[in-house]
């Protein structure tokens, strides 16, 4: 019998590793291996209750049901993972605003829709601002620039809406950058400081009716501000439209 055949069938001879059974270099062995998207989903779910500065690989790995070494294999360090998550969520927010821009209606109705988008967004991502500031805007590179461009496009759409060029014909002089970040801050505070709202309003804060009241209030707040701005400016609608167009070109 040939020697190589004896080696293949000898009971004490360890089995040779074939190319098929060898593990790719660098990737940890785990029976519950998942891809990048599942890791990102687990990270986002963890961020609903854990601030980004406190999240750990272990928490994400437990939720995803994987070996935490697999997270390092895909993303490196935690800041790298959180940066990817920040980019992903920022893109989603921008896409929601893009979808909302095709809706018809009055200035008030369309503004209220944007506020509702912020409400839903921060309800799902209560630590978004801390995440995007610490792990995206405090970095340097094309990802940060792209995120800023998304914000600027959303603000530009808001400026156009408030200038009334495609709605009522009335123009508003307020800077849309202030309005955009103010709406975001109010909606975020609803979720980051929810115990305060619960203490003031009780269990009503968890009802759809409370969301409607909240969005109506913020809408009226903004609309009242822009009307006061129009009255205080002493400018005609034509001059205000010109001012809005000049602001957007800068």
Word description of this protein:
The chain is mainly α and 250 residues long. The protein has two domains: 25-76, Arc Repressor Mutant, subunit A, CATH 1.10.10; 79-249, Orthogonal Bundle (Tetracycline Repressor, domain 2), CATH 1.10.357. Helices cover 68% and strands 0% of the residues. The chain has twelve helices and no strands. It has helices at residues 3-9, 36-46, 57-64, 68-75, 78-100, 107-124, 128-137, 142-163, 176-192, 194-201, 208-233, 237-249. α8 (142-163) runs antiparallel to α12. The chain is globular, with a radius of gyration of 26 Å. The N and C termini lie far apart (86 Å). Mean pLDDT is 81; it is low at 1-26, 28-33, 165-172 and 236-250.
Number of helices: 12
Poorly predicted regions are 1-26, 28-33, 165-172, 236-250
The amount of beta strand, in percent, is under 5%
Helix and strand pattern: HHHHHHHHHHHH
CATH class value of the largest domain: Mainly Alpha
At the fourth level of CATH, the homologous superfamily of the largest domain is: Tetracycline Repressor, domain 2
Mean pLDDT: 81
Share in helix: 55-70%
Largest sheet: none
Tell me what the CATH architecture of the largest domain is: Orthogonal Bundle
Number of extended strands: 0
Separation, N- and C-terminal Cα atoms: 86 Å
Structural class designation: mainly alpha
Global morphology: globular
